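As a warm-up, study this chain.
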Amino acid sequence: MAFDVQNKTVLVTGANRGIGKVILEEALRRGAKKVYAAVRNVDSAADLVVAHGDRVVPLRLDLEDPASITAAAEEADDVDLVVNNAGVLKTAGALAAEAVETLQYEMNVNVYGLLRVAQAFAPGLKARGGGALVQLNSVASVRSFSDFATYAASKAASYSLTQALQASLGEQGTQVVSVHPGPIQTDMGADAGFHDNAAPPELVATAIFDALVESRFHVWPDPMAEQVAGAYQPFAEQVIEAEQQEKAV
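Now compare it with the structure written out below.
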């Protein structure tokens, strides 16, 4: 179920900065005919329009606002590829006073946001032949960290949903990709204290489109992610990916 972005229409959430911005730019570099920059504030995508012209279309989409997701799916009814990149991260340990409130916030964006996006865009993807859905998860989805306990929990939940979506959307011919970066050089990463050994976001963008072409579900795009994958991948191949491979035969 390979997907080539050439001459396709793409939607990227959180496309105005960080990983989302380089995903948008990589899609254009690989020949996408149009990319929706799906952001909370459409004015934040103005620079992208200046740089790329009418190949970039700003579109309001807020993962905390279900109505905005529904409206975006209705407006962008020509999308072939949805990249759900937007997410939030707060530093909170499991015993922190604010842990419950922080987890609720991260779950609402990182988990319920994914579910809302998948439900809103699935019919359109099906109507256009299947297309693809890419979800930005994290190495924290398979290995928790004490200072980021709530974030890791939310990403573990989004990873679980991504696995289920691979099966559900696969029935309509939609390819699903789960991306698991380690620390990346972004504003969000810097705010979380990821200064040392953070990888450039371009690695993530390149790995996503390579995985789409190669029909791979898991993506481990940077050095830290590759280390985690070295231990985790045998389980992923034998348990998570095995059923989907059997269905494809």
